[in-house]
Each structure stands twice: as C-alpha cells, then as structure tokens.
Amino acid sequence: MSTIPIRREEITPEWLSGLLAGEGKCEIAGLDIVEMTGHNPDLSQLFRVRISYLRRTTEHPDVVIVKIPPVDDVVRIREAAHGPYESELGSYRLLESFQGSSIARTYGAVEDRQERTAAFVFEDIGVFPEGQKYAKIDLSVAKKTLEFMASYQAKFWQDESLGETNWIRDEAWSFLFNQDPMGSVIGWQVIRGDDRFEKTGGLMVAGEYLGERLTGLRNALSSRPRTLTHNDFHQGNVLLRQTSNGREPVIIDWQMPAYAGPTNDLAKFLMTAVPFEILAESEQTLVVHYVETLRAKGVADYSYDECWRDYRRAQVATFANYAISCYETSPDGRLIESSGDSTHAVIKALTLADPAEMREILP
Fold first, then answer.
1. What is the CATH number of the domain that holds 266?
2. Are residues 91 and 165 in the same domain?
3. pTM of the model
C-alpha cells in the first residue's frame, strides 16, 4: 500500500498544507482540482489545484500543480522499477539553484522509498492559449533555452560522482534507451515509404545508417565529455514563464537524467522544439551560442568543431530512437506509420543536413 497520495481524493487540504509548510504555516479551506493535459494514469497523474485559504502568508501560491503516481498497484510498481520518480526527485534536488527560473519551483515532495515513488507540488507556470499545444519558441527563447542547457551542463561537466548515483542513468542507456537498434531499420522502411515525408538532405544518409551501423555510432558518441543530461528535451517539455523581461523557458519532466554526452539534449531540443523555419536559418548560430555559453560558464576544452560533429552524430541517434517506435502493425500484418509531432519534426530537421557532411562525420 502506497504511503503517498495516488488518488485524486488523497490530495487533501491537510496534506497540501503540509507540503506548503516551507512557505510558512497555512490553513487551507478548500481545493478546486482539475485534471491537466499530460495526465496519464499509466505514468503520472497531473492536477492543477486552486487553493482557498483560511490563513496564509504572501508566499503561499494561489494555484499549484500536483503530480502523483498511478493508482493501479501493478502499473505503479512496474513503472517505479524504471526509476522515473526517484530520478525526478533527485534532479530537482540537484538543480535546486535553478528552481523558480528555468525549472519549476518545487514547493514540496514526498516519497515512498519502498515503492520507489514520489509525489510533487510544483508552481503553476500557466496555461497555453486555447488551441495551442506547445510553447511557441522564437529565436530569442531558443537562445535562452540553450543558455540554461549550457549552464546546468557546465555545472556538472565531467563530474564523475554523477555516474555513481543510483538514480542517474549512464551513457550506454542514453543511447536509444536500451532499445534494439535493428528496430530502427523497420521504422526507416515505414518512413521512406510514406509520401508525406520529403526524402532530401541528410535524412537519406541518416536512414541508410540505421540498424547494425548504429553500434559504431554508439562507440563514437561514448568518447564525448559527459555531464548531467535531461535526455527528454522535446517540445512538450518546454514551457514558458511570463516575466518582466519577456518569455523565459522552463524545462519540466526530469524523469530520465543521465550522465552522458551533452549533445543528446542539444540535438533533441533543436530538432523537436525549435520551429523548422528558425532552425533552417539559424542552426549554426544556435550551436555557436550554446558553445559560447559553455565557454562562458567555464568549459574551455570543448571546441565548436567537436560540438558540431557530436551534434550531427546525436541527431542520427535521436532519429534512430524515434524510428524504432514510429510504426505499428495493422490486423492484416501491414506496417503503419504511427508517430507524433516530435517524430515528424526530427525527420524534417534532418533534411537540412548536408549529405556529404553527414557521411564524413558519421563513423
């Protein structure tokens, strides 16, 4: 039996006032709880909670986001075995200095150590305008996001102690997330046969590279410097905070951190979250900005040429990961393309790469 909330009705005024104790004593009269987009009973339940107080301080929030594990005992224990709750809790503790700015502030968290689960109370960043699915990222926001990425990576650059923790994954896992490389071959066949996708630029080279050749790519990527990586830096995990200085990126869902090569995050963000039109015009500019921010934060031994090479290689690994899961089998045995927005963005991003350069860079 879980010792932390796993049901909506267990998010009570008494429980929540305890989690908000860090802001001072408060007394809650009632809660208005609404299920959020992203609520997934098989992974994590998400609720936006509006609070009515009887007693509070000026620091107590009017609205919070509560994230709790699944209700189903079998599902919860199965998911917990992969470590996402421990990893998210560890990440927020490790990155405490970024909370309230580029990471959502954590008002409180509780864990069930036996089940390896956790429940969180986060600040509410706000809602998207009606009909908008993802944060709208322009060039300025993209640069700010890369500045944050470079900042947390520089903070833990070559910090081998991260590799000794039990909640941070390793370089080997971060490559395809332990999926079978041969699955990418089938995915490429589906993508190549889909008329919706333009087969130009580096996409064809990347597609031909999938399968057994990914072993060589994995070995080449293992030579990169290592640091803390988010590993799931797709468009759905980038929110925007409205401030007096404009829109500031906020990165959520730190459930898959790894001590791995930094360009894992760089490739996934640029390919999935930056609009294609901006990437087509400013790809090199953005990578330069990332490297210059790393250098400004004290990383002096990672050149632009090295980063660009590792970025292109990480793009192929990112593509392979999405290709593995981009199809399903119909009842009559046919393969059907079945992918989302991030997969389509990754495919499109690769069309920008020069084929000759890709062949030269890939091991």
1. 3.90.1200
2. no
3. 0.96
